[in-house]
Design a protein that fits this description.
It is built from three helices and no strands. The chain is mostly helical. Helix 1 packs across helix 3. The chain is globular, with a radius of gyration of 14 Å.
C-alpha cells in the first residue's frame, strides 16, 4: 500500500510542479510521477539533514513541490539543450 500512496502523491506533486513550469515541457505521466517522487525524496532528505523539518507536514509538502519544480527545470534545460544540438 505504501508504493501506491507514493505513486499517487508523486503524481500530485509532479502535476503541481508542471503547473509552475514556464516552458510547459511535454512530460508524460510516468515522468511526472518520477519527478514528483524524486523531488519529494530529495526535499525530505535535504530538509532533515539541515534540520529544517521532520518527515511529515505541510512544510514537507511545499518543499516536495519546490524540489519537483527544480527537477522539472533541470529536465527541461537538459531536454532543450539536447534538442537544439541535434537540429
Amino acid at each position: 500500500m505504501h508504493w501506491l500512496w507514493m505513486i499517487i502523491i508523486g503524481f500530485i506533486i509532479g502535476v503541481i510542479a508542471k503547473f509552475f513550469d514556464r516552458d510547459h515541457a511535454p512530460v508524460g505521466w510516468i515522468l511526472t510521477i518520477l519527478i514528483g517522487i524524486i523531488g519529494s525524496v530529495l526535499a525530505t532528505w535535504v530538509g532533515e539533514q539541515v534540520g529544517w523539518w521532520g518527515p511529515t507536514g505541510i512544510v514537507h509538502f511545499i518543499a516536495s513541490v519546490v524540489g519537483a519544480i527544480i527537477l522539472l527545470a533541470i529536465y527541461t534545460a537538459i531536454k532543450r539543450k539536447g534538442g537544439s544540438a541535434s537540429s
